[in-house]
TrEMBL record:
Any GO molecular function: diaminopimelate epimerase activity
Record: active site: 73, 224
Encoding gene, per UniProt annotation: dapF
Listed name of the protein: Diaminopimelate epimerase
PROSITE patterns (alphabetical): DAP_EPIMERASE
Keyword Amino-acid biosynthesis: yes
Pfam family, one: DAP_epimerase
Gene3D superfamilies documented for this protein: Diaminopimelate Epimerase, Chain A, domain 1
Location of the protein in the cell: Cytoplasm
Reaction it catalyzes: (2S,6S)-2,6-diaminopimelate = meso-2,6-diaminopimelate
Record SUPFAM superfamilies: Diaminopimelate epimerase-like
Known pathway: Amino-acid biosynthesis; L-lysine biosynthesis via DAP pathway; DL-2,6-diaminopimelate from LL-2,6-diaminopimelate: step 1/1
Family: Belongs to the diaminopimelate epimerase family.
Length: 290
């Protein structure tokens, strides 16, 4: 199986273009678990396939490192956009990408040598509150917040659906130890039957925020594009930041803009790390031992 490893702000996936290669006879969740394993596979935050679409110019599917399929992936969308443009699977710099959550628009910023380093994605309009996801709790506050019982603490956060689900909590200062301790409890909280991505954000000023994430199905990652979009959308709704915000993530910065029509625009890097062939037959026995 041919693959490309790409990363965006350190959020790295194995990309498999079904235009150019065939998949081994294994389910995609299994394949994602296998390639994501840094010791027995390749090592990544998950697997992304690039496929033909009936509704858009191309289609992507995203699987987390634990094999669960997500609806969307912001960093993945930017890498897919770079990939399909540079591989001439599209011939315009603005094109559409189908995800499990619907179709979004990508714009690649083409450099003089024809390569792409920066990509903007129009992520569409976010939805807010318990009604925008599968929520099984009974602790709703206002239109968009819920309170979770986490150990002996109560944690208030904003629910935002940007294709996939997010719980955005404000903290005084981002703290990686806190994210490691509390993130998994939020991700798998009983109030979220489909689990959730947990974001911890602190406002630096009206145009900058610090951000950490514990991703559903992948744990702590260096960056989460949809999480950054969800966080800025939540903070704009609470009038705590302006409509253009630089999000400082563990892996670097993302520029997020909330347009007048409510659409969230995300701009940031997309980088190719390696291309190769995954030796599936020799890997198979290793996988079955997992
Ligand atoms: N890292 C991604 C999000 C990947 C999916 C997420 N873990 C989920 O399960 O919803 C991003 O950049 O948005």
């Amino acid at each position: 199986m041919k693959f490309t490893k790409m990363q965006a702000l350190g959020n790295n996936y194995i990309y498999v273009s079904l235009y150019e290669t065939t998949l081994p006879e294994v389910s995609l969740p299994e394949l994602s678990r296998l390639v994501s394993d840094v010791r027995r596979g390749i090592g990544s935050d998950g697997l992304i396939t690039i496929e033909e679409s009936r509704q858009a110019d191309v289609r992507m599917r995203i699987f987390n490192a634990d094999g669960s399929e997500a609806e969307s992936c912001g960093n993945g969308l930017r890498c897919v956009a770079k990939y399909v443009y540079e591989h001439r699977l599209v011939n315009t710099s603005v094109f559409s990408i189908e995800t499990k959550a619907g179709v979004v628009e990508a714009q690649v910023h083409v450099r003089p040598d024809g390569s792409v380093k920066q990509v903007t994605i129009d992520m569409g309009e976010p939805r807010f509150g318990a009604g925008s996801i599968r929520y099984a709790g009974n602790s709703v506050i206002g239109d968009e917040d819920v309170v979770l019982e986490v150990g002996t603490d109560q944690l208030q956060g904003t629910i935002v659906n940007v294709g996939n689900p997010h719980f955005v909590t404000m903290v005084d200062r981002v703290d990686d130890n806190y994210v490691q301790a509390v993130g998994p409890l939020v991700e798998s909280h009983k109030d979220f039957p489909e689990r959730i991505n947990a974001e911890f954000v602190s406002v630096v000023n009206r145009n900058e925020i610090d951000f950490r994430v514990y991703e559903r199905g992948s744990g702590i990652t260096f960056a989460c594009g949809t999480g950054a979009c969800a966080s800025v959308a939540a903070l704009v709704r609470k009038n705590l930041v302006d409509e253009r915000v630089t999000v400082h993530l563990l892996g670097g910065d993302l520029e997020i803009e909330i347009r007048d029509d409510g659409h969230v625009l995300m701009t940031g890097e997309a980088v190719t790390v390696a291309e190769g062939t995954f030796a599936w037959p020799s890997a198979e026995p290793v996988f079955t031992a997992l």
